[in-house]
Amino acid sequence: MAAGARAGTIRGHNITGGYLVRALTISAHGGLERLEYRTDLPEPETLGPHDVRVRIAAAALNHLDLFVVEGLPGVTIRPPWVLGTDGAGTVDRVGTAVTAVRPGDRVIINAGVSDGTCEYCLDGEQPLCPNFAVLGEHRPGMLAELIVLPAANVRRIPDSVPFDVAAAFTLATLTAWRMIVTRARVRPDDQVLIWGIGGGVALAALQIVKHIGATAWVTSGSDDKLARARELGADHTINYRGVDVGRAIRAATGKRGVDVVVDSVGRDTWAQSLGALGRRGRLVTCGGTSGPIVETDVRRLFWNQWSILGSTMGNDAEFDEVAAQLTMGRLLPPIDSTFDLADGRRAFERLASGAQFGKIVVRVS
Ligand SMILES: [Zn+2]
């Protein structure tokens, strides 16, 4: 656990006695050359009555982490900014009012922090909170040995779940669960198209769709990824290179189309997503990685009685539901690769390459 001896430090402790924390940070926005592995951050020691401190064992990367490095409109960082929107570890301290967890409990972490007092929070819809903040984006993240966060954002997990799996599980599964179960209300007789299999949310969506018993169509530009998706239960696969996916699905379904499309790509796929969508279809989106502005023919929207559904992260009840799935050993995420915290930049480069199939994990402690 020692952070290494340097001037002014003795075996990871600074001269005032506080523990020095290792972390992956940025001090300015830009490319991945901005990533800095630090071994000298001060220990977070101040806990509110409803807070816990968690010793992070493993973190996992999400596309959002790349956006944070590049810089997001309206989001200001305080250097050195700790990255990381997914993590799992062991509770280390608890605030005076915390009863749900105790020091020593193994936990997963929900990166979405809400105020708990607005009309949406009181209605159980925390991701709609006007004061919603994301760990790693608006608050210090999980690519650090220690983090302080509200106790409402942790759930206990059993010893049977390894920390790397737990870290890889949470944000992608929570996001996909809200999209598939809550927003699109996928039923066993539905056909569901999922873009870009290989990414964390798409893979979690595939697993949830198959858990429900519905039919899954998946796309990728890689035949290798499509073969691996079939091993995970995908019923139909389409390599989107040189193909209009909407037209291909209409041809393969006797012009009927699918009931649900999961599209977090945005500009590059929107028209094809609508082309694939059958009557009373639901398109659910949690992002636009290729670009945010899309075009929709409103005549087709009303004539086909489509629903366009936005979704982001998950509420507390959904966090309970996915934590229960993890505890039962279900919906376990495929892990693409694992890196040490000191090699965090390589983990980010792997994510940026788009070559991964599954989650990229960073070992923290
Ligand atoms: Zn709120």
Mean pLDDT: 95
Helix content bin:
25-40%
Count up the helices: 10
What share of residues are in beta strands? 25-35%
What composes the largest sheet? 7 strands, mixed
Shape: globular
Please state the structural category: alpha/beta
Q: Give the C-alpha Rg.
A: 21 Å
Along the chain, the helix and strand elements come as EEEEEHEEEEHEEEHEHEHEHEHEHEHEHE
Unreliable segments (pLDDT under 50, ≥5 consecutive)? 1-7
Alpha-carbon distance between the termini? 7 Å
Task: Tell me how many strands there are.
Answer: 20
Ligands, ions, cofactors:
zinc ion
Task: Label this structure with key terms.
365 residues, alpha/beta, 10 helices, binds zinc ion
In summary, what is this structure?
The chain is an alpha/beta fold. Helix content is 27%, strand content 27%.
Detailed description of the structure:
It is a single chain. Strands 5, 7, 8, 11, 12, 19 and 20 form a 7-stranded mixed β-sheet that branches. Helix 3 packs across helix 4 and helix 6 (245-252) runs parallel beside helix 7 (270-276). With 365 residues, the chain is an alpha/beta fold. Residues 1-7 have low confidence and may be disordered. The protein is built from 10 helices and 20 strands. The structure holds zinc ion. The site of zinc ion (ZN) has 8 residues, from helix 2. The site of zinc ion has 8 residues, from helix 2.
